[in-house]
Amino acid sequence: MKVVLSPNPYRDRGLKAALKAREILKSGGVDTSLCLPFDLEQGSGHAELPRDLDYRNMQDELERADILLCFGGDGTILHAARDANAHNVPILGVNMGSVGFMAELEHSELDMLSQLSKRKYTIEPRMMLDVSVRRGRETLYRDLALNDAVITKGAVARVIDLIVRGDGVHIYDYSGDGVILATPTGSTAYSMSAGGPIVEPTSENILVTPICAHSLHAKPLVMGRDRIVSVRIGKLSRKTAYLSVDGGRAFKLCGGDTVEVRRSKSVTRLVRLTDHSFYEIINQKLGRA
Q1: Percentage of the chain with pLDDT > 90?
Q2: DSSP states of the chain as a string?
């Protein structure tokens, strides 16, 4: 078995957790390699990075990997999902952040990594969304979301007008700060903060959560997995709107643009070592127990 270790140096200071994990895995006969989620030159001035380690190229190592082991928060896992999916490699997350809904282990539970060498783990698939932006007949943008695609207004405090459709049928239109198009995995992220429902992450649904809607009828929706959801941007004179997928770089939208999401053929595969119930996790993470 080969495991690629990918620590976020801003979370895993000095790569202490990653190096401890490497020793645990090596003691079980697991082959490991160390890959940073960004170029060493870009982060070395701001993160504590040991210089005497053999850092490998992520793409090269994933070609022969069985598991990608990430150290960080949910953002680290979201970033890693793009590379892992391209090589059909499952992801195991170790939470070094504050919440970490997608992480399987806390950094205090690293000893459980010994189960990998014994093949004592399961794989849990998570639905993803294909995201695109159309301007007239031209498709300007495509991306893949594990959590969500978020349309928001610019910094100027003016609402934007949005028209939401499902399979081409009008659902509602409203003015507001934006809308979140989320997967069940993303239901506990921004969507929940905006008043959306919590959905079991192994479900397959598309969630539509308006952000500060100036309307009584624009409510959160839980839609079937095979729906095609589109959001058309209204006129934006002296206003701005942006699309961000999984918290990534914002794409500027123009009036009349249509953002479309649908269930992707791609899935993110997460490694499970524990049998924690989803309800136990949300109680623990959200402080209700």
Answers
A1: 73
A2: -EEEEEE-TTTSGGGHHHHHHHHHHHHTT-EEEE--SS-HHHHTTTS---TTS-B--HHHHHTT-SEEEEEE-HHHHHHHHHHHHHTT--EEEEE-SS--SS-SEEGGGGGGGGGGGGT--EEEEEEEEEEEEEETTEEEEEEEESSEEEEEE-SSS--EEEEEEETTEEEEEEEESEEEEE-SGGGGTHHHHTTPPP--TTS-EEEEEEES-SSSS---EEEETT--EEEEE---TT--EEEEETT---EEE-TT-EEEEEEEEEEEEEEE-S---HHHHHHHHHT--
The residues carrying an active-site annotation are 74
pLDDT, tens digit, 9 for 90 and up, residues 36-54: 887 655 444 556 678 788 8
Return the pLDDT at 284.
82
Domains, the chain, ranges and CATH?
A: 2-121+273-286 (3.40.50.10330), 127-266 (2.60.200.30)
As a whole number, mean pLDDT of residues 248-267 equals 96
**Predicted TM-score (pTM) of this structure:** 0.92
